[in-house]
Amino acid sequence: MSTFDVVLLIVVGLLALVVVGVVLVGVRALRRIGTAPAPDDPAFIAEKDRQEQSLAALRSAADEVNSTIDVAKSAASAARAEAAGAKAEAKSARAEARRVLDDARAEADTVLERAHKQAEADAEQLRASARRSGEREVAVLAATTREQAAEVERRAARMDERERLHTEEVERLAERERQLTAASAALAEREAAVTAREAALTVAEEQRRRELERVAGLTADSARTELIEAIETQAKREAALLVRDIESDARNTAEQRARHIVVDAIQRVASEQTAESVVSVLHLPGDEMKGRIIGREGRNIRAFESVTGVNLIIDDTPEAVLLSCFDPVRREVGRLTLEKLVLDGRIHPHRIEEVHDLARQEVEELCHRAAEDALVEVGITEIHPELVTLLGRLRYRTSYGQNVLKHLVETAHIAGIMAAELRLDVPTIKRSAFLHDIGKALTHEVEGSHAIIGADLARKYGESEDVVHAIEAHHNEVPPQTIEAVLTQASDACSGGRPGARRESLEAYVKRLERIEEIAAGKLGVEKVFAMQAGREIRVMVKPDDVDDIGAAVLARDVAKQIEEELTYPGQIRVTVVRESRVTEIAR
Fold first, then answer.
1. Using CB atoms within 10 A of its CB, is residue 11 exposed (0-12), middle (13-18) or buried (19+)?
2. Chain centre to alpha carbon of residue 176
3. How far apart are CA 321 and CA 324, in angstroms?
4. What pLDDT was estimated at residue 287?
5. CA distances from 432 to 46, 174, 455, 473 (A)
6. Mind listing the pLDDT tens digit for each residue in 105-128?
7. CA-CA distance, 123 to 337, in Å (whole number)?
8. Can you tell me the mean pLDDT for 351-379?
9. Of 330, 205, 353, 212, which is closest to residue 278 (Cα–Cα)?
C-alpha cells in the first residue's frame, strides 16, 4: 500500500466520523421534538422552527459530506488506476533494463576482444622501439668510450709535459740555492766586518769618555747625579713657591672674602618668620555663634563660601572655626569678613556680600601699604604700579614657613651687601634680588614655574633685561649669564638656607633624613651612617679593611653627588667619611 492510499483512508475515516456525529445530533433533535409541549405554544413553535432549520442544515451538511465522500472515492479510484499504470510502466522499464544490460554485455565482450588485439599490436611496436633504442644506446656508449680513451691520452700527454716542467723547476731551484749560499757567505763576511767596526767604535767611545772624565774631573754617573739633583732642587723650589702663591692668593681672595661676605650678610639681616599654613583660625565669643554662622538649613555658610571662595570648617573645637583656602589673600579676606560679621552679629547672605566687599578693600589697602613699606626699606622708588600690587599680595604668601615678602626684603639686603663688597652696581642687583620671587603672587592663577612667570611680568612692566634674566635664572630654568643672576642665586640661597629661616613638614623632614641615610648606607664598605644637625651633616663610618684613604675620599664625593641629584633641600649638606684604624697589644 502506498503513502497516498494511507492518506486517502485517513480522510475517509475522518469524514465517516463527521457523518456519525451529524446523525447523532439529528437523533437528539428528534427526541427533543418528541418531548416538546403543545403545538399552540409560541415558544414551542419557535423552538420547532429552529430545530427544523438545524435539521435542514444538518441534512445539507450530510449531503455535502456524502458528496465529499464520493469525490474521495473517485479520487481513490483514479489513484488506483494511476498506481496500476505505474506498475505497468515499472514492468516495461525492468524489461528495457534487462535488454540494455544484455546489449551492454555483448558490447563489452566486443570491446574487450578489440582491446586484446590492440594490446598485442602495441606490445609488438614497443618491442621494435626497444630494439632500436638499444642499438642507439650501444652506439652512444661506443662513442663515449672512444672519447674517454682520447681524453686519457691527452691527460697522459699533459702529465708528461708537467713532469718536464717540474724537472726544469727543480734545476732552477738548485741554481737559486747555490746563489743564496754564495750570498749568505758574502753577508757573513760583511757581518764580521761590521762587528769588528762596532768593536772599534766601542773602544773609541770608551777612550773618548775617559778623556772627557779626565778633563772634567768627574765620572759620568757623578755628573748625571749632580745635574739631576740641581734640576730637581730648582723645580721643587719653583713649584713650592708657585703653590704657596696660588694657595695664598686663593685663600685670601676667595675663601676668606666669600665667607666674610656671606657671614656678614647673614648676621646683619634677621627677621621673624610665620609658619606656612593653608588654614586660618577665628575665635568666637561663644559656641552659639556657630549656629548663627551656619544659618537656617545651612543658608549662611553656603552663601559665605560662595561669595568668598573660602571653605568654612565648623567642628567640635570650642569657640573656634577654621577657614581653609590655598590662596592666602582670599583666605585673609574671608577671615576678615567672618570676623566683622561676628562682631556685627547680623549674619545673612546680603550682609555677607556687603562685608566681603569692605574686607576685600581693606586687605588690598593693607597689601599696598606692605608693598610700599618693603620698597622703602629696600630703597627702590621707581616701579610699575601693577608690580606694587603683586608685591603686596606676597604679604600673605609663605614658602616653607618663610614669609615671601620678608624673604624678598632680606634677599635684597644680602645681595646689596655682596654687591657693595664686590664694588658692583648695587641698585640693579638689589632690584633683581627683590623681584626674583614676584611670580609667586600668580602661582595659583597661572601655570608654570614662578621664575618664568616673574620674568614675563618684569619684562611686561618695563624692567631691564639684566633684572629679567636674574629673575628667570635664579632657579636654573635658564642658565645664569650675568653677575646679577649669580648674586641673586647666592642671596636667595643665603636667605632661605640660614638656620631658622624655613620650616618643612615633619613627614617630609623624616623622609629626607631616611633617604640621606639610605644613600650612604648603600655604598660598599659602609658600616654605620648618622644624619646630624637636622640633616645638614651626615657622618659615614666605613670599615678600614675594605676602604682605604683614597676610597674614603671617593665615597664622600659619590654620596654628596647622589644627594644633590636625588633630594631637594635648602642650604647645603656636609658629608664626612670617618675611617678609623686601631691596633691593640696586651703587655703581660
1. middle
2. 77
3. 10
4. 75
5. 126, 98, 10, 11
6. 888 788 888 888 888 888 888 888
7. 127
8. 86
9. 330
Q: How confident is the model at residue 76 (pLDDT cuts 50, 70, 90)?
A: low
Contacts with 246 (C-beta within 8 Å, 6 or more apart), sequence order: none
Are 473 and 435 contacting, i.e. CB atoms less than 8 angstroms apart? no
Query: Angle at Cα 307 formed by Cα 302 and Cα 312, nearest 5°?
Result: 50
The C-alpha cell that represents 524 in the structure block: 660598599
- Residue pointed to by grid coordinates 608690580: 387
The amino acid at 198: E
Q: Got the DSSP string for 442-508? A: GTTTS-S-HHHHHHHHHHHTT--HHHHHHHHTTTSSS---SHHHHHHHHHHHHHHHSTTS----HHH
Written as nine digits, the cell of 221 is: 754617573
Backbone angles phi and psi of 439, in degrees to 5: -70, -20
For 425, the 3-state DSSP assignment is coil
- Closest to 387 (Cα-Cα) out of 441, 450, 339: 441
53 in Cβ contact with 93 (< 8 Å): no
* Sheet of 537-542, strands arranged across: 526-532, 537-542, 574-579
Residue 75 has pLDDT above 80, yes or no: no
Q: What are phi and psi of 338, to 5 degrees?
A: -65, -35
Name residues whose C-beta falls within 8 Å of residue 528's C-beta, 6 or more positions apart in sequence.
540, 541
Measured CA to CA, the distance from residue 352 to residue 69 in angstroms comes to 105
Which of 527, 529, 526, 539 shows the shortest CA–CA distance to 574?
Answer: 539
Helix (H, G, I), strand (E, B) or coil at 326: coil
| pTM higher than 0.70 | no
Sign, CA torsion 300/303/307/311: positive
Nearest-10 Cα torsion for 449, 455, 460, 465:
-160
User: What is the SS3 assignment for 244?
Assistant: helix
Distance of alpha carbon 392 from alpha carbon 374, whole angstroms: 9
Region label for 535, one of left (φ > 0), alpha (ψ between -120 and 50) or beta (otherwise): left
Give just the sign of the alpha carbon dihedral 138, 139, 145, 151. Answer: negative
